[in-house]
Design brief:
The chain is of the alpha/beta class. The chain contains 17 helices and 18 strands. Strands 6, 7, 8, 9, 10 and 11 form a 6-stranded mixed sheet that branches. Strands 5-4-3-12-13 form a 5-stranded parallel sheet, with helices on both faces. Strands 15-14-16 form a 3-stranded mixed sheet. Helix 12 runs antiparallel to helix 13. Bound molecules: zinc ion. Zinc ion binds next to loops. The site of zinc ion has 3 residues, from loops.
Amino acid sequence: MPLRLFNTLSGQLDELVPADGDVLRMYACGPTVYDYGHIGNFRTFLQVDVLRRFLKLTGIRLRHVMNITDVDDKIIRNAAAAGIPISEYTPRYVDAFFEDLDSLRVEHPEQIARATQHIPRMVDLIQRLAAVGAAYQTEDGSWYFRLSAFPAYGKLSKKDLSGMEDGARVDVDEYEKDSARDFALWKAAKPGETAWDTAIGRGRPGWHIECSAMAMEYLGDSFDLHAGGEDLMFPHHENEIAQSETVTGKPFARHWMHVRFLLVDGRKMSKSEGNFYTLRDLLLKGYKASAIRLALISVPYRHQLNFTFDGLTEATHAIERLRTFHDRLTQTTLAAGENPALQEGAKKAQAEYMAALSNDLNTAEARAPIFELIRTANTAIDRGQFLAGDREAILAVLRDFDAVFDVLEDRDAEPTRRALAWAEQAGKMSEVAPELLAAQSLTDEEIEALVAERTMAKKQRNFARADQIRNQLAENGIVLEDSKDGVRWKRK
Ligand SMILES: [Zn+2]
């Protein structure tokens, strides 16, 4: 079942298939590494991850390129404020970005491209634009794209650009003005700024040319899909199209995917509103990485997500249901045979799941039949109607669910531990939730020892000591589950 994905360029759902019938070539705008990523950034990367994983599930091979913008206005400003060169300023945020992606289990693209390692390719592109009269140099040595050289400008964002002033210029990387301007391709070096000596002068690239140059370097003049957050549609993506298509005369990306902004508690996320969260903030509040992943992907990418702590709690519970069911499914002893109703139910859930994702990656609709199947299967197990032959059918559905959602296996301890180590280094221990500190105050070995002591106490009918240990563990956020196979524990 091919994916039908909304295409910003055509304004409709289009089938997304590789043009060469083999490998789907896609570019997604990566981070600008001037600070830690916030949950709005990560929603975009997670939704692109959903796209990646679903395409792979349907058997499509990928060549996915993502840039790292490691030179831009904000980076230069912040590095100058810190009194260090940008080459010393950005690495810690590059590392933090990949650590955060790993915490959220976002797959890495096949190719990562850092802007500062592709300067010659950008210079070449600007020279080619200049050769056809679409780029011009100003007195200070900067280069601009001549908007009037690309009459199709605005075709992606569908903006009415009739108020466009011919020759008006803008030199900042980001702007929201409705009236389009000639934009900077290359900024002449200012005193103290990082700069490269090149054939077009000493300076540094503008943000937009970075993505055009790196996309075409790794994917060719034309490729299948370009993705990014909705805030990048104008002017960034519009500018990428203008630069690239002016040089090649060919369509740049055939398909454009834009992920909508999220709100936090119904309001735009901002530092001044006090509702601004990085991934690390949430981990230090005691939320688990898997719950953050599920909460950020469960609303389809084209809908506005209203992010709330209630939503995170709901995601936490959903994951618990899923994991508890999976444990039960794999550990319960079952009678031989098959239950036709369950076999049928598994097939139906699988079909509905795939159909929902094929329909513009509707993650909300895709989740529903899976949790419905879990309810049905749990009831069947309760009633002794779940048979050994049904296990694999249900597990197969869970595997496909998890190929995209990836929350089934409990890997939450590591991201939390990493966040705590970071908080310690960054002097942010005061922001750590007390329950989380308590839960981390005992090592795994100490917990195991207490659990073993409690088991021994129970055997010796010393129930007072057994209860005492259970309470001590509970105070430290450790939950015990007694089962016939012994005691299992987990951090709440
Ligand atoms: Zn970009």
